[in-house]
Amino acid sequence: MTIIKTEFTLALNQVATERGISPDDVITSIEAAIIAAYKREYPDKVDEELVAKVDRSTGESKILKDEVDVTPPGFGRIAAQTAKQVILQKIREAEKKTVASHFQTQIGSILKSRVIKFDGYNAYLDIGKAEALLPREEQIKDERYQVNDSFIVYLKEINQDKFDNPRIIVSRSDPRLIEELFKREVPEITNGTVVIKKVVREPGERAKMAVFSSQGGVDPVGACVGQKGVRVQTVTDELGGREKIDIIQWNEDEKLFLIAALQPAKISEVEIDKEKRIAKVTVDEKETPLAIGKGGINVNLASRLTDFEVNIVQKKAETTEKAPEAEEKKV
User: Fold this and answer.
1) Fewer beta carbons below 10 Å: N end or C end of the chain?
2) Structural domains in the chain, sorted by start
3) Angle, helix 23-41 to helix 76-104, in steps of 10 degrees
4) What are phi and psi for residue 93, nearest 5 degrees?
5) Residue whose C-alpha is closest to residue 63's, from 36, 90, 103
6) Residue 192 burial (CB < 10 Å; 0-12/13-18/19+)?
7) pLDDT band for position 25 (50/70/90)?
8) 88: CB partners within 8 A, 6+ apart
9) Cα–Cα distance for residue pair 232/38, rounded to 1 Å
10) Rounded to 5 degrees, what are φ and ψ at 290?
């Protein structure tokens, strides 16, 4: 039985030279696949000890039992198809590995993507030369992923699926997506004049970003906001348009930094325990809703940004009959 010589030789050479796959590995895979195909075709031979031999120069393929040729007549067509399938599979595997290697160098960057499928849980995106996975846990809350919609995504990692194939994981919810978007929009960040200290977010709702500049005369907050808010608005639009971004000036004075982190609320007083990382923040009664935020989002983000457990203390409004009182609200 002989596989067409030119087709076999050309295919083998293509895999070996263009795809960077060992010819020995291809031959071994073909031989194993031919044995499997033979046993599917002849179920009564399943338990027999059989060996397949493929001549890499001629493409001739044989089934051997105890070194005796037991190749059935007419099996050549099945063997040829099997060899072709194995070679094509090896090509696909090599291409996936090459693509994964290309994107390995881009981990930590942002990419343009287009939705090619959404199964109700995961989104599958075209990122140019490959397909990426946007898992449910990396999606923005309530964001819809319809076929052909375009998104900017953060390339988070490349891991292996259950078949040991490379899988590119991207994110829309990672705080580093905001960092990379601002790096793209703000030249002062790119050239090092402005430094992003930390970003925290509730994806799709609100984010807080602390920025700093060591150069006198540079307003890091203003640089990120941009003229008439154009820079921060561009980033907000890339996140779906609903996520509010508070840009805060980082300060080594932890009290001042905490006051800034709780904006837009006006803070009356701050007491901090640096060892226990607990802060007692006093605000006027009318400022309490702003300090806490809807569902506690403002105080929670401020807490994560500053690494303090923040307890909001509401100061009651003064009256003519009673002195001011304060009541503590732990958040």
Assistant:
1) C
2) 5-97 (3.30.1480.10), 110-171 (2.40.50.140), 174-250 (3.30.300.20), 265-331 (3.30.300.20)
3) 130
4) -65, -40
5) 36
6) exposed
7) confident
8) none
9) 64
10) -70, -40
User: How many angstroms separate the CA atoms of 15 and 261, rounded?
Assistant: 58
The count of other CB atoms within 10 Å of the CB of residue 302 is 30
Give the C-alpha distances (Å, rounded to integers) separating 2 from 5, 12, 54, 172, 284.
Answer: 8, 15, 9, 53, 90
175 has which bridge partners? none
The long-range contacts involving 135-142, CB below 8 angstroms and separated by at least 24 positions, are: 135/169, 137/173, 138/169, 138/170, 138/171, 138/172, 138/173, 138/174, 139/172, 139/173, 139/203, 140/172, 140/173, 140/203, 140/204, 140/239, 140/240, 140/243, 141/203, 141/204, 141/205, 142/204
Q: Report pLDDT digits (tens) over 242-299.
A: 999 999 999 999 999 999 999 999 999 999 999 999 999 999 999 999 999 999 999 9
Reference 178, options 149, 157, 201, 211; nearest CA is 201
DSSP 325: -
Per-residue pLDDT averaged across 23-51, rounded? Answer: 83
Angle at 268 between CA 267 and CA 271, to 5 degrees: 90
- The tokens describing 101, both together, are 């290697």
Structure tokens at 298: 């403002």
The set of residues, in sequence order, having a beta carbon less than 8 Å from that of 116 and lying 6+ positions away, is: 124, 125, 126, 131, 147
Cβ atoms of 226 and 189 within 8 Å: the answer is no
**Distance (Å, whole) CA 199 – CA 246:** 10
The span from the CA of 221 to the CA of 194, in Å, is 9
Altogether, the residues listed in the chain come to a count of: 331
Q: Residue 67 and residue 310: Cα distance in Å, rounded?
A: 79
